[in-house]
């Protein structure tokens, strides 16, 4: 893994992918973010040695390198999910690469089902913490100390400093931000009403199928993380309705403009 990461890092550095302030994983809901980036170059995943290539419709696969104001960002347009058949080590490989490109600050976004009755479809939730229920752990197996320690502290998986700053940015811009715990399940099925109830009773505010492995790996390497989740459907008792990937994408569109503006303003001012 170490050698593969270094090979990929060298490939990208040779292409001029350097001096990056923020790594950003664009999930459903932040797909338009690259509209806010002065793009310097894009690199399709197929061209990058050792990169997995995503298969889900609506998830493209390229790295976008560019400027947001004075800051330089490297955004992943298209991410990898455990349910696609990748191991969680494979889905998190790009985060390892980001670290050795010199990135310390990671922003992750996703779509999720809200199980907190205070939430509405189209809300943005700032992830305050997570619960990992994906059945594979990205740090399972022998630990490579060059990446990080065997036992990783997770008391502040989502940087308080970044959270405080984004809350301030959201308040300044008049963007409503919910806050809560993101619980990750393997998918790809959406939850049954009983499962949404389980997520709630376990302490989740929203449930999704991504993000947590990436944040674990980022924390393993000492990165700071911020997570934003668009609530695309509700799994609240009594109102669980049918949900499809199309519904999720449509609902994510509702929040796209606010998400784009929020992350852009955050990156410019953090
Ligand atoms: N459950 C799991 N993942 C999701 C959901 C959901 O309800 N909505 C968007 N991603």
Could you report the average pLDDT, rounded to the nearest whole number? 93
What name does the CATH topology carry?
Rossmann fold
Q: What is the annotated CATH architecture?
A: 3-Layer(aba) Sandwich
Can you tell me the residue ranges where pLDDT is under 50 for at least 5 consecutive residues?
Answer: none
Distance between the termini: 32 Å
Level of helix content?
25-40%
Ligands (ions, cofactors included): hypoxanthine
Quick one: how many beta strands?
Answer: 9
Number of continuous helical runs = 7
Shape type: globular
Radius of gyration: 17 Å
CATH class: Alpha Beta
Briefly note the structural class of the backbone: alpha/beta
β-strand percent reads: 15-25%
Q: Give the SSE string.
A: HEEEEHHEEHEHEHEH
Main sheet makeup = 5 strands, mixed, barrel
Could you explain the architecture of this structure?
By secondary structure, the chain is α/β, with parallel strands linked by helices. The chain has a single domain (2-269), classed as Nucleoside phosphorylase domain (Rossmann fold, 3-Layer(aba) Sandwich), CATH 3.40.50.1580. Helix content is 30%, strand content 25%. It has helices at residues 2-14, 88-91, 93-100, 160-173, 193-201, 212-220, 245-269, and strands at 22-26, 38-44, 62-68, 71-77, 105-114, 124-132, 177-184, 206-208, 224-234. It has a 5-stranded mixed beta barrel, surrounded by 4 helices. β7, α5 (193-201) and β8 (206-208) form a beta-alpha-beta unit. α1 (2-14) packs across α3 (93-100) and α4 crosses α7 (245-269). The longest helix is centred in the last third of the chain and has 25 residues, at 245-269. The radius of gyration is 17 Å and the shape is globular. The mean pLDDT is 93. It binds hypoxanthine. Residues 111-113, 190-191, 207-209, 232-233, 235, 243, 248 line the site of hypoxanthine.
């Amino acid at each position: 893994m170490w050698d593969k990461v270094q090979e990929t890092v060298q490939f990208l550095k040779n292409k001029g992918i350097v001096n990056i302030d923020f790594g950003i994983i664009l999930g459903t809901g932040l797909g338009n973010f690259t509209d806010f980036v002065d793009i310097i170059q894009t690199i399709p995943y197929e061209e990058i040695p050792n990169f997995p290539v995503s298969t889900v419709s609506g998830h493209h696969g390229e790295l976008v390198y560019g400027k947001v104001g004075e800051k330089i960002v490297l955004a992943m347009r298209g991410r990898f999910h455990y349910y696609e058949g990748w191991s969680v080590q494979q889905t998190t490989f790009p985060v390892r690469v980001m670290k050795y490109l010199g990135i310390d600050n990671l922003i992750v976004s996703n779509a999720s089902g809200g199980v907190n009755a205070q939430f509405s479809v189209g809300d943005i939730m700032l992830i305050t913490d997570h619960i990992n229920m994906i059945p594979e752990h990205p740090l399972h197996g022998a630990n490579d100390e060059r990446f990080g320690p065997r036992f990783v502290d997770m008391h502040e998986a989502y940087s308080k400093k970044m959270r405080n700053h984004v809350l301030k940015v959201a308040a300044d811009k008049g963007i409503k931000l919910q806050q809560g715990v993101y619980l990750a399940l393997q998918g790809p099925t959406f939850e049954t009403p009983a499962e949404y109830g389980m997520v709630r009773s376990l302490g989740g505010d929203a449930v999704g199928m991504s993000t947590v492995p990436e944040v674990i790996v980022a924390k393993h390497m000492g990165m700071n993380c911020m997570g934003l989740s668009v609530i695309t459907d509700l799994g609240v008792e009594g109102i669980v309705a049918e949900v499809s990937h199309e519904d999720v994408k449509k609902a994510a569109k509702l929040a796209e403009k606010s998400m784009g503006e929020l992350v852009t303003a955050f990156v410019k001012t953090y």
